[in-house]
Request: fold
Amino acid sequence: MSIEQAMTEGIVFRGAPSEKRGKPGVKTKAKKKAYITGSHGSGSAKMKAEYRRRRANRHK
Reply:
């Protein structure tokens, strides 16, 4: 592209071909669920899960 053409017409950036956009793959919530409930062994996740339980039961 010449500089003059770029200045007058602009530069167009295009996205990826539609083949790659159409395949989202398999998504699962299993890993996220394990982290949220603290069942995967992380101490920080267990603490966060405890805070969530306390907050959920606060106004019952």
Remarks:
- The mean pLDDT is 77.
- The chain has four helices and no strands.
- Residues 43-56 form the longest helix (14 residues).
- The radius of gyration is 24 Å.
